[in-house]
Amino acid sequence: MRELSISFRSVTEPKLKSEIGLKIAELQRFKQQTDSEAKVQVYRQLECSECPLYLEKQKQLAESKAE
């Protein structure tokens, strides 16, 4: 990648410069795809005390007891 960047800056021929630019773009897209495919998302299970539904229900119960 570094060599392509250096040659892109040094080349003056338009056709060759565009080919090098396309290769750089392909490599960058490929790297982004492999990075996103490598990510693994792990979700942890919520405890009842962390669940918004549970907290809302507890709040309603507390309000009804206060009345």
Nutshell version of this structure?
With 67 residues, this protein is mostly helical. It is built from three helices and no strands. The chain has one domain (2-66).
Topology:
Blueprint: H1 2-10, H2 14-38, H3 52-66
Notes on the protein architecture:
Helices cover 73% and strands 0% of the residues. The protein has helices spanning 2-10, 14-38, 52-66. Helix 1 packs antiparallel against helix 2.
| Cα Rg | 28 Å
What fraction of residues sit in β-strands?
A: under 5%
Mean pLDDT: 85
Instruction: Assign the structural class, choosing from mainly alpha, mainly beta, alpha/beta, alpha+beta, or little secondary structure.
Output: mainly alpha
State the main characteristics.
67 residues, 3 helices, mainly alpha, rod-shaped
